[in-house]
Design goal:
Layout lengths: L4 H4 E4 L3 H8 L2 H15 L15 E6 L5 H12 L11 E9 L3 E4 L2 E4 L3 E8 L11
Antiparallel strand pairs: 1-2, 2-6, 3-6, 4-5
Length: 133
């Protein structure tokens, strides 16, 4: 699994919230730019451009994968066939363990399998074109 990136990243997790995160958070970018402007002494309005947005992407990953393996797998998958100056750099990875829900089928009960999600934050101004949206 460690040398095969598609064994670590199983699929993108596409929901309304994850799609909104993949477009970038303009409010957070505006706050960050305002803080930088205040430190520089500027008090005027701040314009948020596409390069200022920080985008987050959500993936379903293998349960035994750690953050370092997830980071290397995302960079390997999405940098395949790119030049070095256009390479994607992962800024941070956050992981979430999702416990399977209890489900009933008539009289019998069972559980869905447990999952692990990873929220991958890219560097400022970077985006994935073929995320699945």
């Amino acid at each position: 699994m460690k040398n095969f990136p598609y064994g670590v990243i199983l699929r993108p997790h596409i929901t309304e919230k994850s799609v909104a995160l993949s477009y970038g958070d303009e409010l957070a970018a505006g706050k960050r730019l305002r803080n930088v402007a205040r430190k520089a002494g500027d008090k005027g309005p701040v314009q948020v451009s596409d390069e200022d947005l920080v985008r987050k992407y959500t993936f379903i990953v293998a349960r035994e994968a750690n953050k370092i393996e997830i980071k290397e797998a995302v960079e390997a998958i999405y940098n395949e066939g790119r030049k070095k100056d256009q390479a994607i750099k992962v800024a941070s990875v956050r992981t979430i363990k999702v416990v399977g829900k209890k489900r009933r089928r008539g009289k019998s009960t069972g559980y869905e399998p447990d999952l692990k999600k990873a929220i991958v934050t890219l560097g400022q101004g970077q985006m994935l074109e073929d995320y699945g949206v």
